[in-house]
Design goal:
Length: about 210
């Protein structure tokens, strides 16, 4: 029986992938077979051999050893813009049921499956669909990555409330430092600990 987690964050570029890779290594050290999924990736390049490259997909699969990129990343778009714009430009409708089917197949192969969202909790996937809808259709507990920088308390608490409103469980949160330690780091961490209704799973320092 596998366990999945949906990884969201306080923003884009705050360390969801970085934290996912740390979590993958942590679970691997516990002897678990870990697989990753990046259902929607915008910002891809086409390589000389015609294959698609996305940084998140590359970092996640390098950590897990997965080779079936289509299974772990069913939707990929070239421009580095919000998925709802990239999908519209490509004439593609992102279907959470397709993502759920890919997840189901991955879940058969691993002990732990980490699913990284794109952007934050309410990043739009179309005019009517948000990343939170995809998380709900997967029905997984959520891990919230907090990018430890000025403004993160507001972003973290709003996101935690929205996750609670969605009915999904917040399994825990990660304090990730995507930049050299912020001023008053310890006080910020303490405030987040007191207000986020879930355990702090991991503290990741800035790794230059
Ligand atoms: N703890 C850290 N130490 C050093 N660099 C970090 C750390 N966390 C994140 N970064 C760097 O910050 C950048 C953004 O991180 P990352 O790609 O993990 O963010 P993300 O939230 O997954 O972004 P996206 O929304 O594009 O998926 C990357 O270049 C990453 O290497
Ligand atoms: Mg990422």
């Amino acid at each position: 029986m596998s366990q999945g987690y949906f990884i969201t964050g306080t923003d884009t570029e705050i360390g969801k992938t970085h934290s996912a890779v740390e979590l993958i290594r942590l679970y691997q050290r516990q002897g678990k077979r870990v697989l990753a999924m990046k259902p929607v990736a915008s910002g891809c390049d086409i390589q000389a051999d015609g294959s698609w490259h996305n940084d998140d997909v590359a970092r996640l699969t390098a950590a897990t050893g997965q080779t079936d990129l289509e299974l772990m990343n069913p939707y990929r778009f070239l421009p580095p813009v919000s998925p709802h714009i990239a999908a519209r430009e490509a004439g593609v409708a992102i279907d959470p049921a397709r993502v759920a089917e890919h997840y189901r197949r991955l879940a058969e192969q691993g002990d732990i499956v980490l699913v990284e969202g794109a952007g934050g909790w309410l990043a739009p996937l179309s005019d009517t669909l948000f990343m939170s809808d995809m998380a709900q259709s997967l029905g997984l507990p959520v891990i919230l990555v907090v990018g430890m920088r000025l403004g993160c308390i507001n972003h973290a608490l709003l996101t935690a409330r929205a996750i609670a409103d969605s009915g999904l469980a917040l399994a825990g949160w990660v304090a990730n430092c995507p930049q050299p330690r912020q001023a008053a780091y310890a006080e910020n961490l303490d405030t987040l600990r007191r207000h986020i209704p879930a355990p702090l799973l991991l503290e990741i320092p800035y790794q230059s």
